[in-house]
Prior knowledge:
six-stranded mixed β-sheet, 58% helix
Amino acid sequence: MNGKFVIAGLLLLGTALIVAAARGTLWFDELLSLQWARSAQHPWHVLELYRHDNNHPLNTLWLLLAGGDRHPWVYRALSMVSGVIALALVWLSARRLSEKFAWVSLLLAATSFPLVLYASEARGYAPALACLLGAWLVVSAQTGLGAVWRVPVFWLLCLGAMFSHGTSLVVLAALGVYFLVDRRARGGSWGRVLGGAALWFGLPLAAAALYWFFFLRLMIIAGGPEYTLPQVLAHFFGYSLGIPGAGSAPWPITVAGLAAVTAALVFGRFPDAATRVFFVGAVVIFPALSLLATDTTYLYFRYFLVSLPFVYLLAAPLADLLSARAPAWRVAGAVLLSAIVVGQIPRLGTLIGLGRGDYAAALARIASESAAGTKIVSNTELQVGFLLGHLKRSKPELAGLTLVPQARAAEDKADWIVFTGQEDPPTAPQEAIELHGDVYRAVSVHHSAPVSGSHWTVYRRASAPAQK
């Protein structure tokens, strides 16, 4: 099962899913980063002017370099390429844990809804994952320890990871602990081990301190839905392991996910104690510590995404263990693996089919059924305004549409209402709504895949309501 054709097929499958999911209009979070990139006069403005949780500096720098009005694939190219590289690095990493069952981790990663989602949109998560996996491979190599290129490459990967997304510091901290335990286990004196740690981690640690002081410490979280920790963990495990109802049953899903991770850490066959220590740190300890060090008012499952490839890597040593047990255990392992992969299909299908919302079609319908000077109002005027402004640059037929601020909606009557939401699954829209004495009736609904994007319901002004 670990033949070259199987690995090539899984890499091709993962690549195809990423490319298919990358189609469609940029959504609000991507457009916000693009706006900052367009406004930056110099590359260093990416860090200096936009201290916001949606500014993933390396990705924003890529958007700045891409420039102009480009096809969405151009803006998403850094993430797409990083996502494919990450898949290859998952396989290489899994081979160090289990040569026979490395394909299991690759299968889970290639069909992972969260990984496909964030490898197909212009944000910093996929570059961070690729850099972290590369850093793990470099620092854990058992041969060529004196190669002069390894340390500077490790530095570049650490810098790439942290500037792609600040949550990378969680895994980088686990790498530091791994280095100390591993080099000490190899027989090095504490003086030599600490000297090596200073060489390998001195520059990344200094960069992390500066990054925290000048950027992360001052970063603004603009807001959004508020979730409890069990809900966030249920989203993480539900989306990552293909469990349906990720938001509706937080406690059972969280308990099941934590039990699976614990079983993999306890019963998995790791090549040495240092490797087990690293995975405990990267998947459990440092993510937990990060919750104590940050404001958790606005907490989302994607903030733990940097640990996800390492969760999938745990499947390789666990599968290796199950293969040596009774047939019943092997059957159970096959059923569990199949359930995870099959469970991902509905969300992946929705992502590829619906994308992050069909905003262009919604606005095109409004434009086709309206005269020039048509006015629109929305419950999320910032998001709709960004999307309308972006699409106007490439679609002249939308030039006659104007977004009316909510503060002026009473006196400046809107012809259309665009009502947006991010519920998963979406709630059924009302057939009619009333706004400032006028009745608006629903004429079209445009759905989005889960997590990224939003559902749009378009309402058209019908008439004034009857007097009561």
